[in-house]
């Protein structure tokens, strides 16, 4: 079997190219667009996407998938540029994601995710779905500017929205700060 320039078999390279062509990217707030991205998922209706059988993930579907998800993975960047990722409960309102430091057991409330957001202001939330039937897999990633709200109206709004979504937060209001991500980019597959 022939090799790609990266040392993969030719069939693996072809598969990777096929999978990459299924991405849908929506960017808000800047002009940076990956090659082959779609400015708005709704504008992609009826567009052939490299002959693949699945439909594009439209903005409404991305938002529904994120809003209905019970857990996501919050990714931040350390001050030294390393990735840091943790599972979290969250709620989506418009293009804003809220999470909070809650009562689940932690070794400290001086959490790396909070330090990272204060230092870099960079955050992503990944929501995904896995099944053994791989035709049903999907993921949505929201990238944006992250910040920590220790008190005030934004924190209170976050806690109220989280309590509306999670019974556990209605029973025990989180005591820690809120994490806020102002989403600038939505990415999804398929």
Written account of the structure:
With 190 residues, the chain is of the alpha+beta class. The protein has a single domain, classed as Electron Transport, Fmn-binding Protein, Chain A (Pnp Oxidase, Chain A, Roll). It has five helices and eight strands. Strands 1, 2, 3, 4, 5, 6, 7 and 8 form an eight-stranded antiparallel beta sheet that branches. Strand 6 and strand 7 (138-149) form a beta hairpin. The chain is globular and about 40 Å long.
Short descriptors:
globular, eight-stranded antiparallel beta sheet, alpha+beta, 190 residues, Pnp Oxidase, Chain A, 5 helices, single chain
Concise structural overview:
The protein is 25% helix and 29% strand. With 190 residues, the chain is of the alpha+beta class. The protein is globular.
User: How confident overall, as mean pLDDT?
Assistant: 78
Can you tell me the CATH superfamily?
Answer: Electron Transport, Fmn-binding Protein, Chain A
CATH architecture: Roll
CATH class type: Mainly Beta
Secondary-structure element series: HEHEEEEHEEHHE
Low-confidence stretches: 1-23, 29-56
Beta-strand share of residues: 25-35%
Number of helices: 5
Q: Structural class, from helix and strand content?
A: alpha+beta
In this structure, how is the largest beta sheet organized? 8 strands, antiparallel
Using only CA atoms, what is the Rg? 19 Å
End-to-end CA span: 28 Å
């Amino acid at each position: 079997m022939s090799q790609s320039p990266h040392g993969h078999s030719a069939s693996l390279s072809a598969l990777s190219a096929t999978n990459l062509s299924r991405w849908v990217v929506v960017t808000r707030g800047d002009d940076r667009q990956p090659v082959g991205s779609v400015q708005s998922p709704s504008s992609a209706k009826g567009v052939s996407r490299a002959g693949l059988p699945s439909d594009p993930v439209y903005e409404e579907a991305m938002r529904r998938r994120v809003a209905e998800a019970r857990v996501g993975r919050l990714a931040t960047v350390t001050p030294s540029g390393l990735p840091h990722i943790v599972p979290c409960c969250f709620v989506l309102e418009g293009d804003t994601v809220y999470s909070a430091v809650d009562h689940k057991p932690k070794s400290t409330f001086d959490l790396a995710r909070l330090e990272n957001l204060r230092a870099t202001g960079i955050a992503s939330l990944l929501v995904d779905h896995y099944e053994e039937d791989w035709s049903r897999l999907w993921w949505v990633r929201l990238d944006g500017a992250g910040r920590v709200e220790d008190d005030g109206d934004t924190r209170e709004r976050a806690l109220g929205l989280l309590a509306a979504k999670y019974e556990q937060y209605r029973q025990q209001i989180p005591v820690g700060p809120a994490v806020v991500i102002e989403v600038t980019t939505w990415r999804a597959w398929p």
